[in-house]
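Example record for the data management plan.
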Amino acid sequence: MDREDDRNPLHHTEKMKTRLTEMIIHLREDIDKVDEPQFKAMFETAAEVLEGLKTAFAHYEQRGERVWR
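Corresponding structural encoding:
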């Protein structure tokens, strides 16, 4: 990795959003593999929480939320 990229926060937020997306997809795919309601609820909740985190990263990148200005 280039030192310049390493110092750029947007480089890191993009990488994390990609990893979060991969985990969200994995969680949602696994929901259909098990027939236990508590498992399904836990995995869907985890996916929703990660979606929120991914959104927070996007807001940071866009400086759209008041807290990031």
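Summary line stored alongside the record: Residues 3-68 form one domain.
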